[in-house]
Each structure stands twice: as C-alpha cells, then as structure tokens.
C-alpha cells in the first residue's frame, strides 16, 4: 500500500503542477521541450522560477554566471545556509522534469515554510543551476563550478556551443551575465558558508520502476573514465585472398577488446564493485572500408563509470594491458588515446541515514542506489559540503520527450525533502 500524503501539502502540490505546466508551455519544442543552455529556453525557465520566488516573498539574486538563488532568510542569516538545487537546462527535445523537478521541489519546500509561518533557524536557498547538460557546451557542471570560482578561464572562449558556434562567454553576455568576473576566479559560493546541499531529481534509468519503489536515496554520483578517441590500426587486405592467421583485422581485434571489457565488468559485479561500461561508438573508416576488404582501421569510444575511483584507475591499467596483448597477437596497434577522469561525488552518510529514517517514519518506500548520471551535487560533494540526493521514479528514462514522472511519486520525494529540511533547520 502506498503511503498517504500529508493533506497540508495540497496547496504546494497544486502550485508545483502549475509550474510544470507553465515550464512545458513556454519551452515546448515538438516532440518534447528544449531549454537550451544560455539560450531562450533556459532563460525563460530561470525567469519563471525567479518570478515565482518573488511572488512567495523570497530574496532573489544571480551570480556572474547566471545561477539563480532564491532565499528564505533564517533567524540567523550569518549561519551556514541550506542549499537545495538542480539545473533548468535540458537536452534538445527532452522531457519536462529532468533538472526542473529539483528546482520546483525546492521552491515548494520554501512555499510550505512561508505558508506555515515558519522561520528556519538558518537560511534556506533554492539554487537554479546553469549549464548542467553537456550537449550544448562540451564541459560538465559549468554553472555550479562557476559558482565556486572553479571554472577554468580558458573554457569561456574555447568552448563553443554545438549549434551556434558561439563561445560560452558570448552566450553568457547575450543572456545578460558577466564572464569577465569569472575570468578573475570570482566565487559567489564558499563551502564554509553552506551547511549542506540537497537535490531532488528524476531517476534517469529503470531501477526504481523495475523495483516498484517510488523514491531512491542516492549513495553517490559515479565518477567516470572517458576515452573519446580510441583507435585500432591494422592492415587493409583482400577479403578472399588472405588466410586468418596472416590477417591484421582491426574489427576482430576490436571485438576481442570489447569482449574483454565486458568480462572485466562481470568480474567487478561478482566482486560487489559498482561499475558500468559503454562503448558508445564503434566504426570502421567509411572512406576506405568496403564489403570485400579486411578492415584495417577502427575508431571507438568508451565511457566507464563507478562510485569507486580506485576501481576506475585499476580498469585503465587493465585495459591498457589487454590492448597491448591483443595488439601483439593480432599484429595491430590499439591506442586508447587521452582520457578524462571525473571524480565520484559521494553522498553524506549522515544525511542518507536521516533520509532513510524519515522515509520509514512517513511510510515512504525507498531504496539505496548509485546515480549513473552526473549531477551538480557532485561539485558540492567534492568541495567537502555534506550532500544528499533523492531520486523520484520516472517511467521511460530521461533525455527524451517521453519522461513520465508521476505527480504522486514527486509528492513523496518532495515530502521527504521537506521533512529533512525541517529537521536540519
């Protein structure tokens, strides 16, 4: 049996539904919605949230990167504040809830406190992060890193938006913000002024749906190894004239390498280590390969993720050994190229336990789970800020127009977040 919602939350749930409907109406891009980073869609979403905050009587501010801060002042405004946040941009033709659900949930927490006439002991701020989706600019967590003064200055000019070709700095200026201040390393947020960071987000995979559980308590944001330019160089040859033992077949070498990666994954699972791996691209060179040629070249990518960074680094060592072995036996060269290593963001154990206890008290079914997708809360966690994340069950995954978060599930996740804020503030 599903838990019964607090009847006192009905006004906030009605307002949340109105906000989601308004977001959808203003950013519809058939077949889904588009809230482009530092573009019209993201700007509209930020303006809508800011106006909602002003209507609630909250203090509203933005930083040099355009991150939005909506604050209910506490009895001691000098005390480290509680931050609740998520992002408001989306992928092209995406769903209405990815990111936005967390900002709406935060505003509803503050709306409830205002309605009940409660002044928290410490200030509570809802943050609308800019530029979380990497499909527009190829760098992670642009907005949240900029808030801490962590955005490398060269990215402002070197990152170009995929569809416009204009730089990150140009798009920031066009949206009314001040990249020059970011060049100087200006930090709007400082870890010592933040008591904790909380984020609600739709689950972007099927685990909660499969388990028939409405809410997840996230254990951590998986770190990653990303290999964007892997290459296997063999030798082109006639498909009918060269026997197997004399071939330097790049495709067969690649198949063996990918099989070894999957075997490594299976072993990590057997060892109880959090781990996922994806070969997202795998192709021959269309300018040279034909039906009657032994393929002499393959290019591929790898995205490998885990909550355990030591497991990631050990995987890199293993894969380079596999590449050397296959290369020697098959007469090919397997070059994995440069990699990037994004560190995991582990959630705070005490906050996780509080969420679990509060969920049990309210009869909300939950499960512990890792987040395979990146989220802004990883930036906060890696700044040493106690961080917690709540997932809400969501049919059909995310990054597509068919996101189908049920409002009852959202209500349970939001209710759990509100209970945690009550306890912390």
UniProtKB/TrEMBL annotation:
Known EC number: 3.5.-.-
Key words, A-Z: Hydrolase, Manganese, Metal-binding
Species annotation: Thermostichus vulcanus str. 'Rupite'
TM regions (residue ranges): none
Stated name of the protein: Hydantoinase/carbamoylase family amidase
Claim: Kinase is one of the keywords in the record: no
Cofactor needs: Mn(2+)
InterPro entries hit by this protein: Amidase_Cbmase (IPR010158), Bact_exopeptidase_dim_dom (IPR036264), Peptidase_M20 (IPR002933)
Lineage: superkingdom: Bacteria
Keyword hit for NADP: no
Family: Belongs to the peptidase M20 family.
Subunit description: Homodimer.
GO molecular function: hydrolase activity
PANTHER family per UniProt: ALLANTOATE DEIMINASE-RELATED
């Amino acid at each position: 049996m599903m838990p019964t919602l607090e009847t006192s939350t009905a006004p906030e749930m009605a307002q949340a539904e109105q906000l989601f409907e308004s977001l959808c109406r203003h950013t519809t891009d058939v077949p889904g919605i588009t809230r482009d980073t530092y573009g019209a869609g993201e700007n509209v979403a930020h303006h809508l949230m800011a106006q909602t905050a002003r209507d609630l009587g909250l203090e509203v501010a933005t930083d040099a990167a355009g991150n939005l801060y909506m604050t209910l002042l506490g009895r001691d405004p000098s005390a480290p504040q509680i931050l609740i946040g998520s992002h408001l941009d989306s992928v092209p033709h995406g769903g209405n809830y990815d990111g936005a659900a967390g900002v709406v949930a935060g505003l509803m927490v503050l709306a409830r406190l205002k309605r009940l006439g409660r002044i928290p002991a410490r200030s509570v701020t809802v943050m609308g992060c800019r530029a979380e989706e990497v499909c527009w600019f190829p760098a992670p967590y642009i907005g949240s890193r900029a808030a801490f003064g962590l955005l490398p200055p060269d990215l402002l000019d070197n990152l170009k938006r995929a569809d416009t070709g204009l730089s990150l700095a140009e798009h920031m200026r066009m949206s009314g913000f001040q990249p020059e201040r970011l060049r100087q390393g200006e930090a709007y947020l400082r870890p010592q002024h933040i008591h904790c960071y909380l984020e609600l987000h739709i689950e972007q995979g099927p685990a909660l749906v499969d388990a028939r559980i409405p809410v997840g308590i996230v254990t951590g944001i998986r770190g990653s190894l990303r290999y964007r330019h892997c290459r296997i160089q063999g030798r082109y040859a006639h498909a009918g004239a060269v026997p197997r033992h004399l071939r330097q077949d790049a495709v067969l070498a690649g198949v063996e390498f990918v099989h070894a990666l999957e075997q490594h994954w299976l072993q990590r699972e057997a060892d109880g280590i959090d781990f996922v791996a994806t070969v997202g691209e795998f192709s021959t060179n269309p300018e040279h390969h034909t039906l009657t040629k032994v393929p002499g070249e393959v290019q591929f990518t790898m995205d490998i993720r885990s909550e355990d960074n030591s497991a990631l680094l050990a995987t890199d060592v293993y894969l380079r050994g596999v590449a050397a072995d296959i290369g020697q036996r098959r007469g090919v060269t397997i070059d994995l190229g440069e990699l990037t290593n994004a560190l995991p963001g582990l959630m705070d154990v005490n906050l996780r336990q509080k969420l679990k206890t509060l969920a049990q008290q309210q009869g909300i079914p939950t499960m512990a789970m890792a987040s395979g997708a990146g989220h802004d809360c990883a930036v906060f966690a890696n700044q040493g800020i106690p961080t917690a994340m709540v997932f809400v069950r969501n049919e059909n995954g995310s990054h597509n127009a068919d996101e189908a978060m049920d409002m009852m599930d959202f209500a349970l996740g939001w209710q759990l977040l509100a209970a945690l804020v009550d306890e912390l503030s």
